[in-house]
Design a protein that fits this description.
The protein has 210 residues and is α/β, with parallel strands linked by helices. It contains 11 helices and 4 strands. Strands 1-4-2-3 form a 4-stranded parallel β-sheet, sandwiched between helices. Helix 4 runs parallel beside helix 7. The radius of gyration is 17 Å and the shape is globular.
Length: 210
Amino acid sequence: MAGADLTPALLKRVSRSFYLSLAVLPAAVRPTIGLAYLLARATDTIADTRLIDRASRIAHLDTVRAALRDGDGGGRLGTVVSAIAAPQALPAERSLLERLPEAVAALRARGLAVSYMRVRGFPFDGVVGAFLRAYERVFVVEQNRDAQLRSLLAIETGVARDHMTPLLDYGGLPLTARFVVDEVTRHLAPLESIALPARGADRATSGVTA
């Protein structure tokens, strides 16, 4: 199955609600947003696989990050898949991890160098500060009017507030993909340049969410 088929074929199995929510987005950006979500879901699964020791999970996440940035010429993602896919109880999660190399390649082909971190607790682990410093632009997605997460990140990690752009949605409704896309578009570039970036024009961008 081609990389272009990843979103409809796999996303529907992994998260039906997110798959359905893509319908509200412009058609041009749906494959890119779908791929980004699949990658975020895969990294979240890697981080949550408690049968693998913490140091190995961090190493696997670093491998995924390097593959996104530099490509997977050495087949390093195969090691991640071998270690993480087998323990998964849910067939959809196992399929997602088995197709991780394909998803990374498809996202890189779109000219996007992106990453994602979900902050699960406070105080922060040292890996959070390292993540923030690794990217030119960081978007902090949170549902707090005063950007509390960004403030805590700045205080605890020493990363300047100006390095982190807050995306705030505090209307009381669930956070939507459309909100994130619209806000990133407003801060970063016209929507068309996110949907159809030129090859070789990768931008190192990341997102942090609570």
